Amino acid sequence: RNTGKVAGTTTPRSVMSGGVFIKWPLMIEVYGDSTVPIAKAQMLMRKPVAEVFEVFVDPAVTTKFWFTRSSGRLEAGKEVQWDWEMYGVSSQIKVKEIERNKRIVIVWSGDPSSTTVEWVFTSWLGRRLLLNTTFLSTKIVADHTPDAHKRPSA
Fold it and tell me: What sections of 12-85 are H helices per DSSP?
């Protein structure tokens, strides 16, 4: 069992989408063993939590920087389809939980297994007072277990 933590960074990139400036990744950490890999990523966005949250749930905005088409808005208990038309690929997304302006948990269908993704939105005040800034934490669990996002990280 691999209980070690692998941390790394990639070349910082920025994108302006729907009025939200996104710079990523600050850091990606991968935890896990041979059966259930867990990845974490964090982003700092210079917009209020409510605006950043809306970017993730509203396909009219999300399609400007991520997928090209969606069958609907993210809502708890709903299933939507995300399409990447330029690649001829689509995925079924099951929305497990939504806490408005705080948290989103989805299960991203795949073959042979699914991936659970949890986004946590937090107002952030760092070393400098940064008003209207959101810290976004992402946890990705490559497992089809229904409560995989609740597993503790190393």
Answer: 49-57, 59-62
The phi and psi torsions of 51 (rounded to 5 degrees) equal: -70, -45
Is pLDDT above 80 for 37?
no
Report the C-alpha gap between 130 and 126 in whole angstroms. 7
Is the Cβ–Cβ distance between 138 and 41 less than 8 Å? Answer: yes
SS3 content of the chain, % helix, strand, coil (to 5): 10, 45, 45
Higher pLDDT, 141 or 112: 141
Q: CA distances (Å), 40 to each of 15, 16, 33, 58, 91, in order?
A: 20, 22, 15, 23, 21
Q: How far apart are CA 154 and CA 152, in angstroms?
A: 7
Residue 99: per-residue pLDDT: 96
How many beta carbons lie within 10 A of that of residue 77, not counting itself? 9
Cα separation values, 51 from 13, 70, 73, 126, Å: 20, 19, 15, 19
